[in-house]
Amino acid sequence: MADTFLDLINEHDEVIGQALRSEIHAKGLLHREVHVWFVTPDKQIIFQIRKPSPPKFPLRLLDATAGGHVELGHSYLETALKEVFEETGIEVKEEGLFLYKKIRATELFPENSKTNAVFRATYIYKFAGNVEGLTPEAGTGKGFIAISAEDFLNKAEWIEKELNIIPFLHEEEMTTFFNEVANG
Questions:
Q1: Cα–chain-centroid distance for residue 80?
Q2: N or C: which end of the chain has fewer CB within 10 A?
């Protein structure tokens, strides 16, 4: 992955400078990122299966449908649209994405001693297609899997063991999200 410049932000989500991605994670500097979750009409959530050895959580393979860092001068929404296309091959329109929540989070990466301090905008896309129709991003994506929100909540321990989920999926924000999807 290229070491690119990203916007640094303050606690009010205002741009205050720029730094290289490597420096941002090494020093735990605050920046922006997005996650997009595809949710099906029958309450399944589409997870991306990543290839081993990505920069974050190299042994954790199950992640948001799409996501990434907000590039210099870009908005959360612009980034979400770009990442969905790059990581799934699906082109969505602005009105197809629903902003679920924007949060401030700090995640520690024990595998490489880095810190991810972010404002993260999480979007939902109502996906009526077939998982097999999604095209993983070359080099990083391995594929996709649909798991019902109810199964995820009830079988989180098995899913963690078998599918190696990203740790933040156990946090309260995500548990609330999965509960809301499960309950309609």
A1: 10
A2: C
118 is written with which tokens?
A: 């972010």
Q: What CATH number belongs to 5-182?
A: 3.90.79.10
Could you read off the pLDDT tens digit of each residue along the chain, which spans 184 residues? 578 999 999 999 999 999 999 999 889 999 999 999 999 999 999 999 887 754 555 555 678 999 999 999 999 999 999 999 999 999 999 999 999 999 998 887 666 677 889 999 999 999 999 999 999 998 888 899 998 888 877 766 656 555 566 556 656 777 788 778 888 7
DSSP run (H or E) holding 152: helix 149-154
Q: Where are the domains of the chain?
A: 5-182
Tell me the two tokens of residue 135. 């095209």
What is the distance between the alpha carbons of residues 141 and 27, in angstroms, rounded to a whole number? 27
Q: How far apart are CA 83 and CA 108, in angstroms?
A: 23
